[in-house]
Amino acid sequence: MALTQISSNKCFGGLQKVFEHDSVELNCKMKFAVYLPPKAESEKCPALYCLSGLTCTEQNFISKSGYHQATSEHGLVVIAPDTSPCGYNSKGEDESWDFGTGAGFYVDTTEDPWKTNYRMYSYVMEELPQLINANFPVDPQRMSIFGHSMGDHGALICALKNPGKYKSVSAFAPICNPVLSPWGKKAFSGYLGTDQSKWKAYDATRLVKSYPGSQLDILIDQGKYDQFLLDGQLLPDNFIAACTEKKIPIVFRLQEGYDHSYYFIATFITDHIRHHAEYLNA
């Protein structure tokens, strides 16, 4: 599949690149960012996928998080896709900030008019890794995943639905139990319909209760003053309880004074890169 390079910038000895391609799953042009550390010039490196949150594109994480230095030092290739199909031009796509454009929710939709294009789960799980493995110096056997907010809803469900595929997973302020949150109810009813049994297949708290797979150590950072936490959108306590019941190791850090912003992410991003490097470089 042909890639068109949009930009390339030197950063901490590596290259931050952005590409565009014609997506089969999403039936539109999609952009994704790739950071290639200096180590990638001479050998294949582990791949770390980062899924962004509501209203974001591939640009938010690469321009605001400050991840490049730690990633360069640990020799990780970082891939950051857009958060939804672009240029679909469906009625209702841009009517609200938390549904449609910038709000793909990493599900494969089943409802009209979204089901033709809004297939972000299959894009992240299948099409994008195939594209990365074919075009960049990555080791397909060493993959990890993390994200922010809606993106960490995506990261958690990808890891829990595919035991053993990812070496590690981490999260910044994830939407942990979307079947019970206002954001999740809005997105799932629009994308998946009114049959709530379909919703459970994309809910991390429900998935962890039946997780059959290999060991999965989870790191979560959450800002204590995150308004979305206080509004009941994120519901991490439900996820923690499910992990505890299932005896899945989880480190949950409630960070005093922090909110939902990229200032929060930038403060703790080095810890998350280190967490993944421990498993990917083992």
UniProtKB/TrEMBL annotation:
The catalytic activity of this protein is classed by the Enzyme Commission as: 3.1.2.12
| A GO MF label | S-formylglutathione hydrolase activity
Q: Biological process GO terms, please? A: formaldehyde catabolic process
Q: Name the Pfam families for this protein.
A: Esterase
Which reaction does this enzyme catalyse, per its entry?
Answer: S-formylglutathione + H2O = formate + glutathione + H(+)
Keywords, in A-Z order: Cytoplasm, Hydrolase, Serine esterase
Localization annotation: Cytoplasm
- What's a GO cellular component annotated to this UniProt protein? cytosol
The UniProt entry lists the main location of this chain as: cytoplasm
Gene3D superfamilies linked to this entry? alpha/beta hydrolase
Q: Which family does it belong to?
A: Belongs to the esterase D family.
What does it do? Serine hydrolase involved in the detoxification of formaldehyde.
Q: What name goes with this protein?
A: S-formylglutathione hydrolase
**What organism is recorded for this protein?**
Rhinopithecus bieti
